Amino acid sequence: MDTILSILNQSLREAIAPSTAAVVIAVIGLNIHFGFTGLLNMGQAGFMLIGAYGFAISIIEGLPLVVAIVVGLGGALLFALVLGIPTLKLRGDYLAIVTISAAEIVRFVGRLSALEDFTGGALGLRGSRYQGPFLDLSFLPDTSWTLSPFNYRDTFDGSGVVRGLAGLLFIGLVVAAVLLVRRFRGAPAATSGARWGRVGAVVGLSLLALLAIFFVFPITYQNNVAQGWWVRLVAWTLVGLCTLLAALLVRSPWGRLLRGIREDEDAIRSLGKNVFAIKMQALIIGGSFGALGGIVYVLPSTVQADSMGRALTFFAYTALLIGGAATIFGPVLGTVIFYGGRVLLRETANAYVPSSIMSDQQTETFSLIVVGVVLMLLVIFRPQGILGDKRELRINV
Amino acid sequence: MSEAPVQSDLRDPEARRALMSGVGAEPGSAKPDSILTVDNIVRQFGGITAVDVDHLEVQRGVITALIGPNGAGKTTFFNLITGFDRPTSARTGANWSFDGKRLDKTSASSVARAGMVRTFQLTKALNRMTVMDNMMLGASGQRGESLSVSMLRPLWRTQEREIETKAEELLARFKLLEKKDDYAGSLSGGQRKLLEMARALMSDPKMIMLDEPMAGVNPALTQSLLGHIQSLRDEGMTVLFVEHDMHVVRHISDWVVVMAEGRIVAEGKADEVMSNPAVVDAYLGAHHDTDLGDDALLQEETLEEKIQEYEAEALAEERSHDHGGSASHEGEQK
After folding, report:
1. At the topology level of CATH, where does B3-125+187-284 sit?
2. A378 touches chain B (CB under 8 A)
3. Minimal CA separation from B224 to chain A, in Å
């Protein structure tokens, strides 16, 4: 029992890790590219890496934090322009080829020993060299803190029964939220009041579910260290803001244009819209989300070119497909499930498969294999992901 | 410009007939009030010249049909003037103007913004979007389509509502209103054609170009489509459409332009142009009078004649063989 709880605890820790939040932000950008506009960007990790390098190098060179963030985002903007101008007029596949190669170019340039003074070469830039200004911003007290402050330890002397009941409550709340979302999808809300009521119900259930899970698995960190609550707070706040921004963008007439371009560029062109400009805007916006994700990704750790290689792009795609492409909350849900699930698999294999059959290193690989299989099953049996609209995919274009 | 009276006049078939009666029935003839003028447009694919049009004018406010056999270059011509393709003669004098504006150096989107909106032969409904979203995309000049404004809902909400009302009116007219929340991909082929046409009308075009609007549409729907096209004309819109079906063309068009092998071979009123020898040649071939399957063969006398001819030929052949044969015999005998 203790092993199971410890596995679940580790999985939850991974799910709320700052690196997970960072990937969520990058996946939101990818969702704008791939989910809404239909741009096959295979180099989101390249955008992340550019953001991370721009940010870290600027701070190391003595620029203020805000300027460093702007440099990171500006780097992504330039990168998007360079990629987009030659390829966006061509068929979609070309963008995929160009982005994947460009991301690799960025990675290899970062590893160049000739640039070691700037990028740190293959070893990368240590976090302590650029984390200072960010950690100084923290207004949290220099102590450790537990989420949630009210947890099973406070009730009935940490009774296992209460803990178990709370766990069941969590599962029940999640199931209720999912069922509610499905019910709402069937019948569109008549008035805006009803719509807000529905949103409120789902958000309320989700918050309760979060409370329940942290009641069962209280998590304690220091506040103001590189891997502490401060970076988690900032990272997840940014996730919230980015989700909101993306929702505003894709629910506007501009977002409608994006979906139109995904369906048929020529039709949109025949309606008098400048398709190239809109695709370029989408590429830049999504790329900027990627760069922001890259900045958050390196905040608690190091800037290391190989940590943002092709694999990360494919993880991002997997997360997007799990959550559901072209949905608002798909990136968040998909990424959390992807990273949490991976750790769950790895730790389970670690704990229950004897090391004579599978060593610790092999379980890591094993978890990736299972993720790959899950991705395949997902694309075959539930291509719309968890939150996607099935009716939308039933129509073969 | 006295546009308004012209438009009201053109609802009357007699007025249209009178208007077009002064126009010469030869390729590239001048029209009294041309909305689209095309000059010297050539498109080659490798060695094949798909389109080679010297001059064409399209009269404002009437329905002009562009007909021609398969491979005549009608759709290519459409693509060229709507900016979806570039003429090979782009640098050597190709130019066309629409409503006084030169269009030969602009993109497809600017052509549409100028007021010339097209539909496609293979219907391009945006399948995984709702019918309403399809319609809303058609409206031009939307503030919310600019990236910076799009995030601020109050700035475009009023306009959005106006567009929605307009879209609902158009959908009601095309009998698609009850489908407005369905995905466009779930509509039937004919309904998609209607949707595409309605979507094109969202931007209030001056001229609408329909590429084979009746292809794959059942006869009942064809009737209603024809009605819609005619009502567009009655509202003062110029219609240019490509069609195979001669009946359709004869039924609704005020003027017919015939293309064959990339060239405009004839122009004229629908009932007259069909008897134009150039048109007959284009559709049936120049040697269509030469009967390949000769019915006369079925007559008994001719049949006998033919048989005799054949026998005579066979005999002659035999003889020549005999000659050859006898020659060798002679050789042997010697």
Report:
1. Rossmann fold (3.40.50)
2. no
3. 23
